[in-house]
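Hi R.,

Here's the chain you asked about this morning:
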Amino acid sequence: MIQELKFLVQLLSPLYRPPAYKTINFPEVDLKNLLEIAEQNNLLYYTAQILRENYFNYITAEHREKINKIISNGQVQLQKIDFALNLLNKNFNNLLLVKTYRNYPRLANDLDILTKNFIVDMAKFKDLNLQASDYDPKLQEVIFYQDKIAKIHLHGSLSWQNCTYFDNDLIWQQPKTILLGRQEITIPNPTADWLIHLAHMNFEPLHFTLSELLYLFNLTEQIDLKVIIQQSKKYHWHHALIGTLHILNDFHDYFYHQPLLVNNLIPPIKLIAQADSNYQLPKSFSRWHIITAFLAKGIIIQPLIKINKVIKILITGNARKGFYQAPENNLLK
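And here is the predicted structure, written out as tokens:
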């Protein structure tokens, strides 16, 4: 399915840049495989939009119906996101949307919202007659939901595996206002945004998608790498960060024939041509990468609590299958 993945990267050029390999024509692609890869990488709705706009004349009636259904169902989910953001804008100040925005109409399992006033804002949500679940007073997390809006995951701070990975103040410096659908919302500055994504993928899902890759690639020229490296050292996940930067370089070189980062702050590594199968996405981190990252961070108790999941990941080398609920897997139902 590497042909379909390469075509998808080509299709998504507006999110970053055109790939460096020879152009792949639509008839060379298996549409079923293409849609499957797009779904797994949280790009199904956006991909269906592009296909309907540019390739509908080349698509069978059966697949046209499927694409129309994806878009129709996706629009319902996007409307729920719009309603949720509108509710936030009308009733709250000083909130940050984290990990959700990717610069395209993306569907998400929930909206991750960071607040400086967790207890106060949690009370405000309850006054709005939203239902609450998964409240964790220690981690300062709670999920609010209602039928007509997307789930809102409220955070007083950001942590994974009960650990901290960066200065909370850094996340709030110079927030950026973006337009998500019809709503304006603030997100972290590019350096903080990059840092959040890299820490999260290393210590929570243990894998990354094409959606994340393209977003990180596009942000790279705007980040302060010195700050990112300093934070990873301060919070004891520097080795995992450097390993991830090498992986990003490798994927960027595969698709665009040049490394993403050329910087003396990163220990050099020779890029070696690998089999196409190594670049299938989503991509789970290697067993060794996961083990060394967790040990360096001192994360021992949490993996023991989830020992069945940990053993399965280490045996299969797949941190996604059976553990992760893809946001778009209901679009065809």
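One quick note: The mean pLDDT is 90.

Cheers,
M.
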